[in-house]
Structures are given as C-alpha cells and as structure tokens.
C-alpha cells in the first residue's frame, strides 16, 4: 500500500511538473511580441486627435506628382466648390502641361508650373498662397514631401501608402504634432458605397458588436508594371517583403472597429507564400533573373486589438485572380461581405419587424434576398452618399469614391472640422509594411503595433465623420 501511495505521489508530482513546463512554454513571457522603438512625445509637442484648423472660404491647393494618378485628382478638384488649383508640379514638364489642359477644359485659370528638377516641389511648398499640398508621387518620396510641406505651414494630403518605414512614420507623426497641421492619407476605399453603407449599419448597431473585419489588396499588376516612373513599384516589390500596400484593406476595417477611437491594435502576425509569378514575369517579359525577389506571392496578416477583436489583411499583386479587397465585417447580429458578391446576413432580431420585407424569413444562415438588401442599403445609406452620390458618380474616380474623398477633405478644411482621417490613421495603416516584414523575418513571430497616439487612443469614443450642424 505504502508503495502504491509513493508511486501515486511520484506520478502526480511528475505530471504536475510536466504540465507546468508545457504551460510555461506558452507563458506571456516567452511569447512577448517583438517591440519597435517608441520614443516619448517630445516636450512642447501636442497630440492631434480631433485636430481642427481655422475655417477657410477657399482651399488653395498645390499638386505634386502628375503621373498616372495625379491628373485625375486635378480633374476632380475642378468640380469641388471652394477649391482653387494654384500650382502643379512634376519632374516632367509635359505632364504638368497635360494637367494645365485639364484646367483649360474645365474653364479655370492655369496654375503656376514647377518641373525640371528633383527639388522643384520645394518651391511649390514655399508659396504663401497655398493651404494644402496634395502629393501623388512614388512611395519613397511621400514622407519627405509631407514633412517639408508641413514645415512650410501647409496642410498635406498624400497618396497611399503615405509612409513606408517606422522611422518615416514617426517623423511624419512628430511633424504633424509639432506643426499642428492636418496630415491626411488619401485612402479612397473608405468612401466606397458598400463600405460606407456597412459602416453606417454598424454604427447604428444593426450588426451587433463587431468582432472581426477583413480587408485586402488583391490585384494582379501585370498590365501596370511597365507604367510606373523609373520602375519604382517593381523595385519596391523586389526589395521588400511584407504587406507593402495595406491601406485599402486597413482603412475600412479600422474605421468599423473604431481604431484609436476606443480600441487599438496590439499585435500582428504575418505569413507569406514564396514569390513565383512576378519573378517568372520578369524572366519572360524582361529577360531578367530575380533569385532574390523579396515580396511574397500572397501575404496574410492577422491583428488582435486591445478589446479582443481581430483583423485579417491580405496582399497579392502577383496571382492570376479577380480583383478583390475582400472586405468582410462580422458582428454578433450580422455579417457583411463585399467580394465577389455584395451581401448581408442578419439574425432575425437584428432589425425591427416591418423594417424589411419578409422579416420572418431573416436568418444569418443565408444572405438576405436582393429585395431585402436594397431596402437595407437605402435605409442605411450614409449621409455623405445621400449628399454626394449623384455628383460623385458623374465626376467619377473608381466609381465615385475618389471624388467623395477629395470633397470631404475640402469640406472639412473649409468648415474647420476634424478631417475624416488623421495622421494616426496614416501611421496605423502604413505600419503594416514595416511590421509585417519584421514578423516574416522572424518566422511569423508576433510584432507589437505601437500606439501612435502615445496615450490618446481612448479619448474619442467611436469613429464618426464630422458635419456642420
Ligand atoms: N488610391 C488609389 O486608388 C491609387 C491608385 C493608383 C495609384 N495610387 C498611388 O498614387 C501614387 C502615384 O502612383 P502613380 O501610379 O501615379 O505613379 P507614377 O509613377 O505614374 O507617377 C508618379 C509621378 O511622380 C512624379 N515625381 C517623381 N518624383 C518627383 C519629384 N521629385 N517632383 C515632382 N514629381 C515627381 C513622376 O514624374 C511621376 O509623374 C502612389 O503612391 C500610388 O500607390 C493610389
């Protein structure tokens, strides 16, 4: 009997120690996310959550970068009441001239022209008759241009992604805080019709507590690779691993999850498949071997937030497949999905009886009928779309969302309102490029997402667009 008790005790001790060891292997201590440097906010510098600037009747704009993307912005601005195009800049004079012709066609005065040198844009930024510098150059030039423009006392708006490294991101945040200037990333996808309607439904509580959001940039770029100035986009893909174009997926996902308006991203993990299609393209089309090509064929990132929510982001500019930004939102009462077919699935009690036809048939096991979807989309049409949809569709730009983005930027500046997207959105959405690279280089280890607001992520409760009352 004594022997049996002894055996039992030994087994129990061994089991307990084994158990502790295996649990120990999974303690928070072992799996602390990799941290990047976060310096304290420099003395005398103030956060810019909710930043406003004095109202202005006319928003005077200077454009830098008139390649494939820039001229369409110039064209859109000719349709925005209260916007005045003052200056245009590109390395190439013929590109500036093409944009002048857009102004001619719109019947507005020609703008001051800057070109011919790498630094001509600095003279544009130094003008004292410009309020806003609008940047649509390649990724590597964005941060220095934004910083210089803010230092010259200008608000800035910059194409996506507006900053590529942690150093650039922090420099941009610090400059915006030091100068107290607006610094907005031109993320157009947050204004698309399905996304904004879904955001409104979520904000009205129809989908319940939102627990998961998904987004992506899936767009095979074979038709475009040869069109970028000096091959900048291919060069960036050749030399960088990670999700280097994350903002189209991140924007709508972060807005619906109130990131830095009551929640914050804590850490991410990333995984990619090996690069195959672009190296093959380089060999076939350019006769070029690319054994060290860095950017993965398909990159996936998962993010966990302070409030226990999750985000899934994907990047794939290589694979032969249909365009998709994935966009899914999952709440406790319902689900929204944009690609390949837009649809909603709702629990029966998500909306009141009488709100939609055949209310008794609602079940989250299947998508609502087209008839119900139409009723929902009309009922929850966002006030921004109610005001702008018709004009936006006429002016165009990715179906109208680009015009809405520019219009909102000018509207908020004119009325002294906080912009829809602030410098912390820019920082959070852009941080995926350097942080996913760090995760991938460490076997998909968790990487901490810094709080770019440095303590102010919970000051505002819930993301909302600002309007004049
Ligand atoms: N939001 C969207 O849907 C969307 C769509 C397309 C492109 N973009 C973004 O727009 C930006 C521009 O892309 P693109 O396709 O027009 O590239 P692009 O290569 O066609 O154009 C870049 C332009 O910048 C100019 N430029 C470069 N250095 C300059 C300098 N020092 N001074 C003045 N001009 C300079 C080039 O001459 C060129 O005309 C990128 O950030 C891209 O990711 C966004």
Describe this structure in words.
Strands 13-12-11-7-10-9-8-14 form an 8-stranded mixed β-sheet. A 6-stranded parallel β-sheet has the order 3-2-1-4-5-6, sandwiched between helices. Helix 3 (93-106) links the parallel strand 2 (83-89) and strand 3. 37% of the residues lie in helices and 15% in strands. With 469 residues, the chain is an alpha/beta fold. The longest helix is centred in the N-terminal third of the chain and has 23 residues, at 2-24. It has helices at 2-24, 70-77, 93-106, 120-126, 139-151, 166-179, 193-203, 232-239, 247-256, 277-286, 370-379, 383-395, 401-414, 423-430, 432-441; strands at 59-64, 83-89, 112-114, 132-135, 155-158, 183-185, 210-218, 265-272, 299-305, 310-316, 328-331, 334-337, 343-346, 447-448. The protein has 15 helices and 14 strands. The chain starts with a helix and ends in a 21-residue tail after the last strand. The structure holds nicotinamide-adenine-dinucleotide (NAD). Nicotinamide-adenine-dinucleotide binds next to helix 5.
